[in-house]
Amino acid sequence: MFDNADAILLARIQFAFTVSFHFLFPAFTIGLASFLAVLNGLWLWTKDHKYLDLFRYWVKIFALAFAMGVVSGIVMSYQFGTNWSAFSDKAGPVIGAPMAYEVLSAFFLEAGFLGIMLFGRDRVGPTLHMIACAAVALGTAFSAFWILSVNSWMHTPAGFEIDAETGQFLPTDFWQVIFNPSFPFRLMHTVTAAYLTTAFIVGGVAALHLLRHRHRRDKVSPATRTMFSMAMWMAAIFAPVQIVLGDFHGINTLEHQPAKVMAMEGHFESHDEGAPLYLFGIPNQDEQRLDYAIGIPKLSSLILKHDLNAPLAGLDTIPREDQPPVAIVFWSFRIMVALGFAMLGIGVWSLWARWRGMLFDSPMLHRAALVMSPAGLIAVLAGWVTTEVGRQPFTVYGHLRTVDSAAPLDAAAVGASLVAFIIVYFAVFGAGTYYILRLMSRSPANNEPRLKDVTNSPTRTAGTTPAQQHPTRNVQPGE
Length: 479
What we know:
mainly alpha; two-stranded antiparallel ribbon; iron; Cytochrome ubiquinol oxidase subunit I; Cyt-d_ubiquinol_oxidase_su_1
């Protein structure tokens, strides 16, 4: 089946498939962990039961999403030693330490306090439970910090030298390795994207229940109204912030990875007196042109260099063998930008509805929020594709090519594992995602049950009859 396939291409597809599945869960849980910490803090501060109901509602979803993120991440890491062993050998002395720090700091922080966050409210007291919620939220941010530091180094390598005999990258300054030129922009852009992703999922769930209650003409719970209000505030605040951060990130990318920006913009030719912003076109990399181009004159120069007449170089200045796949980068970038402006539109719409006192009585807004609920997930995937495909044909930009990073494996071996991953992932993570959607389909209840109230039944074989509880058994506090 894979006898005539390219082993390196299959290895890239396999890594793209597994990292895409994995990235969906952290993109959700980074924001959700902070949302839960805020809800718990509001409950302790105000004693308003709607915040506790929301915490109990979303912590069940968080527990499942967090677990699937951990499992999918473990699978990904093995590929560094299988499909990409040459990359691991050469870049390991630099990226090994930050990846270890991610486990030793972020993952240990999350794992150490997760159990207290999920089950410890009645056992450790409100103060320590609040500390646990904050620690889990901080741990997810630490995880993003270290992983994005490694990834950013691969795009803008710094603080290293290459051993002449082994070809290995050796660290000379770990501060430069960690805080490489693109890292601050990439970290802010990605973490903000995670918060927006969570906001639109939470807002979409709340919109679903607002529409259902409107259809049934029954009373909406205070928790549902609060959930929608908080999500729309996040959308209104963070969507414009994300667009500004994206502009900063784009300018930084133009400085350090100009070929990527040329592909994003569809600029095959250089422009000496202002470059147009192409809204639409069909990249023709073989002929080095953008067919059927529709653009706005000089707007790209204004955005990237803040000068209408600023010159911009094109892909005609980049050797063919160093150009990224333009069509993929061109279209994934436009998907990301389009969704970003759509999220901004929802945020502005929600402000207008809030000002009119119609935030909870605007079915058109609720339908739009429901449709946009997966927009954050799609946008982060499109952004990830833009970033990673735009780095090609390098794994360490400008220094190590992808073709020199792969392990010497046959295409049949890589293809077989790819097929196995696809089958297992869709079965396991498909079931988990289905269960998450089932949890979301139920609206938050007044006096929402605790997580341990729905998980403390003993596991038993299907079809057997559980034993009667002994009438004299004493139930301990917190059980």
